[in-house]
Amino acid sequence: MHINGVEIEETFAEAFTMRCARATITAANETWARHAALAATGFAISVIGCGMEAGIEGEALHAPDGRYGLNCLFFTNSKDDMEKQLTNRFGQAIMTSLTSACYDGKLPELHGEEAGLSKVNIGGKLRFFGDGYQASKVIGDERFWRIPVMEGEFLIQEEFTVGKGIGGGNFLILAETNEAALSAAEAAVKSMRAVRGTILPFPGGVVRSGSQVGSKYKFISASTNTAYCPTLRGRLKSSSKPSQLPEGVNSVLEIVIDGLTAKGVSEAMRLGILAATEVPGVRRITAGNYGGRLGKHHFYLKDVLASEVVPQ
Amino acid sequence: MMKKQVTLALKQIPSLPVEAESLNPENITNKGIEDIKHLPVWCGRQQEEVGAYFDVEITADAENNGSGKDDLPELVLKGDLSRFKRLGQGMGAGTMVIQGSVGFHAGALMRGGTLVIQGNAGDWLGAHMEGGLIQVEGAAGHFTGAAYQGSSKGMTGGTILIRGNAGQTVGGRMRRGLIAVGGDCDDMPGYNMLAGTILICGKAGIRVGVRMERGTVILLQSQALLPTFYYDCTYQPYFWGLLCARLAQDGFLLPAASQKMSFRRYSGDANEGCRGELLICNDQAV
């Protein structure tokens, strides 16, 4: 299959079920909401090394307190990890940030038993920072904690909704040059950012150090994706795992997508791939998988590209 | 699907008070007109029947489809019911609309559902309420959401919205929940309040929050306070935005500018540990 002259390999992206949560961070203005959101989602690139994957989803359309708000999505391997990570991140990154408040963004996209919806208590833990002067306020059916701080008050919702999302949707851009790969990746990221319910957890949305499972070293669980490293093309000729790079490809970039639903991940992949194929110098689009043995969710590139546009 | 509606039209105003706690949406479910007419009410020591006071009609009203909070029929009472006490007492679900005024104890001990009173309400409105929503389009009497004499806790949940004025001791000993008064209220709102939120848009009487232990009383008009309330600061509490949104959701609209207003915060009552708060609007223009 070819799009805009770019080969789309007949393969699939293998993704995993993860626990997900959404937080709405509000502040006096966009600058301070963004400071808090960036800090809370910082160093959340991969669960392997960071314990969490996170990113800014976009502006909150209806922030609970009527101020400027940003929605952030968080993904972990387990509910316990989610509780621990959110407690640390909200306590360190949002409570400290000027004028901020933090609310459960809920997960209306998820429903039914499959969604595994439950709650984790975050505000109820952070309240102890108030040293006994914290106060709760129940509005509707939801409890919020008001923690006195030097600036005034930090307001945080007691419980945050956790559900089952998808982590690890991906595709790889194989290009003739670094410049072409970078331009294609930037174009793809720009298109994909519009899809609500998804995030691209890597810096700038793109990863250059794609990984494979396992290593020759026993003390690490993942290592560089040798089959796609251009500098190893010749050296791997006689290897049991030879290079996967076609002639003329000198740079590969990967885009990883975490999303609340398969529909969202698929739509983000579709938009990203289409945008990437429009950049001259892109030779092939492929995807990373483990033979289908590890991840429950398989996104076949041909199916992704054949899907209808999903309004978000 | 058409929503079932049960309408009770008052035949004539009784000369004596009638206690009618049997009238709530749950009690009329799966009942025919005759069954509803035989529901008991009390006039003094005399047990009587609903049919003695009301004409009963059951309709499937297409226009009101979905207006109820659940599958229970909507109960509509028409007439001046200010001599009827305990209407909607203990109701747990459904919608009850009273097209007129009601007597004492309306919605007392209510656990859920919605009670709409299109006239005035008497004393003890929503006393000991645990959940649900009461909307009063007129005024309310004394002790709204309060605790009965001898009880340590009043309202423990739910929302009471009064568009008009309210009497004395609004939210006396309330433990949780929200009371909003669109007009003025008499003395001692938030008396011995344990927690929860009271909003008074108009003028309040004397001794606001006297003996309050915790909770929040919000006043949109300036007010002389007891000396046992100490000034903390002037600021914009972020939960106020949430509260405004919640009130708007229930149709209790505040002026557009109110969401951004600042408050003078006082802690008190110092005689009770100083853990409660009074928030007084600092923007006189609102």
List the helices and strands and how they pair.
The complex is a heterodimer of chains A (312) and B (286).
Chain A: E1 2-3, E2 6-8, E3 12-27, H1 30-40, H2 47-50, E4 53-59, E5 68-76, H3 79-94, E6 101-104, E7 118-121, H4 123-126, E8 135-139, E9 142-149, E10 152-157, E11 159-175, H5 178-192, E12 198-199, E13 211-213, E14 222-224, E15 251-259, H6 262-277, E16 282-286, E17 297-300, H7 301-306
Parallel strand pairs in A: 2-16, 6-10
Antiparallel strand pairs in A: 1-2, 3-5, 3-6, 3-11, 3-17, 4-5, 7-11, 8-9, 9-10, 11-15, 11-16, 12-15, 13-14
Chain B: E1 3-10, E2 18-19, H1 33-37, E3 40-43, E4 46-49, E5 54-61, E6 74-78, E7 84-85, E8 95-99, E9 114-117, E10 133-136, E11 156-162, E12 176-181, E13 197-200, E14 216-219, E15 230-235, H2 239-249, E16 263-268, E17 276-281
Parallel strand pairs in B: 1-6, 2-7, 6-8, 8-9, 9-10, 10-11, 11-12, 12-13, 13-14, 14-17
Antiparallel strand pairs in B: 1-5, 3-4, 15-16, 16-17
Question: What does it look like?
Answer:
- The complex is a heterodimer of chains A (312) and B (286).
- Chain A is an alpha+beta fold and 312 residues long.
- Chain A is 23% helix and 34% strand.
- Chain A is built from seven helices and 17 strands.
- In chain A, the strands form two sheets. Chain A has a 15-stranded mixed sheet that branches.
- Chain B is mainly beta and 286 residues long.
- Chain B has two helices and 17 strands.
- The longest helix of chain B has 11 residues, at 239-249.
- Chain B is elongated.
- Chain A binds chain B through residues 26, 64-67, 101, 135, 137-140, 144, 146, 152-153, 155, and chain B through 176-178, 196-197, 214, 216, 233, 235-246, 259, 275, 277.
